[in-house]
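Page 42, continued from yesterday. The earlier attempt failed because a stray header line got pasted into the input along with the sequence. Redoing it now with the clean sequence only.
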Amino acid sequence: MASSAGKGKTPKVAKVKNKMPAEVQITAEQILREAKERELEAVPPPPKQKITDPDELQEYRLKKRKEFEDNIRKNRSVMTNWIKYAQWEESQREVDRARSIWERALDVDHRNITIWLKYAELEMKHRQINHARNIWDRAVTILPRANQFWYKYTYMEEMLGNTAGARQVFERWMEWEPEEQAWLSYIKMELRYKEVDRARQVYERFVTVHPEIKNWIRYANFEEHHSYISKARSVYERAVEFFGDVLLDEKLFVAFARFEEKQKEHDRVRAIYKYALDKIPKQQAQDLFKFYTIHEKKYGDRAGIEDVIVSKRRFQYEEEVKDYEKTRQVYQACLELIPHKKFTFAKLWLLFAQFEVRQKNITHARKILGTSIGKCPKDKLFKGYIELELQLREFDRCRILYEKFLEFNMENCTTWMKYSELETILGDVERARAIYELAINQPKLDMPEVLWKAYIDFEIEQEEYDKTRELYCRLLERTHHVKVWISYAQFEASIGDDHCIAASRSIYEQANKALRNDEEKENRLMLLESWKEFEINCGDDDSLRRVQDQMPKKVKKRRKVQTEDGSDAGWEEYYDYIFPTDSANQPNLKLLAMAKKWKQGNA
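This time it went through. Structure tokens are written below.
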């Protein structure tokens, strides 16, 4: 049976699927769009949970706090989790818990402005004024450049009627020299309370910190608005003096002249316009001509109007006769005539380069100065070229020029110092130090003492006190000049701790021993006087007495004078110093003491 059944069945064969591409293709964009549409389908809101007893409320709060804490634990740096947590605690009227969460958030990111603002709003909303003040104080101390904190802090104090407190906050803010709007807000607050004198004091500081012309004009308008005409005039005059002849702008003079025109001081107005037209370049004086002409047509006579018209036409003619290409040709002709191998004029090269800079042809200016130092290198040419590149902020070019300058003149200490100063400004301290090291190891320098002082001052500014001590020791190996000893001792004393005070005293003692054989006794006296001043400021009675015991006696002596040919020319008196600690001077001191005693006995 089995065999017959097996013969009757045939094996099943799987159908082959059609692998041809479908007629309608579905793109990935369509799939995403359909998925988004399904998300937007209306979903029934979750059922509202009504809490009816304290236990259920407590259970709900524990559940929510656990959710918030879990979210924070997963990612502490996401400030949104902290904000939601604190605001939820506040909604539950758990102010202490909300305060704790804000503090924890600040521990995570104390530079987050939003956290500070919302934390302070919490305290102000619940009328916790002292808490709010504490938060604002901390915020402005940590982030003094965040203006929102200062604005909110001053506004809170003013709303509380604490004008003195608001003023104190403004004063703290102004110490940071903030932007213009902060100063103007301070001035407006003072004016709201009719404190004109205080507002004037703020204006005085404001125009010092932000000395733009518009701010000086604001200051003058303030005085004029409060009918202080003489003070307003004084502000304009001070502004003109402040900006000098180089930085003057026609806006200042136009405002000044209009002010005087309101006071019907027409002679003053004319004097202002004429002064301005003499000082300001003609191409920058268009408005001056315009307003001067309007003024004369309204208040002047025929002669005055004609004067303005002539001045304006003269300006137009001067503009028309400019020919920059001829100027360039004159400079080139002068440079071709000068025999640069014998002598040259550095000023001519520099003036030619400055002319090209004014024409905004920097490449040609560089070419001129490069040619000058190639043909006839001079200190003045190198300095002028470096100054140009500094103004253009091309610091790599400055480095190359300094290196070529030093190849030309390795003895110039000023060049070494300027090069190192540039690297210090650029923040490359190690490069600056290496330049100083190369400089002091040169076999010949024109001002080695100035170079060493600059190197020492550099290390002191970097607070590298051990390197500074090493420099002083290396310098004392080369010279025992009294000023080096004094400078070394004063450096140690300036640090201020007990160890350095003792080190300073030790340096004075070493210097005193080193200078005992110095022929210039005034040097040793200078050292002892410096030592005495140090002991007065930093020592005690015993240490001061030890120095005073070493102070010399000033005695008058006589010596023979000889002319250049060796013949006697009589005697001359001079002063000498006898130091009591020198054994050779002991008999002299005893003799002086006996003579003084004898003189007192006879008297």
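Notes: The radius of gyration is 42 Å.
Reminder to self: strip header lines before submitting.
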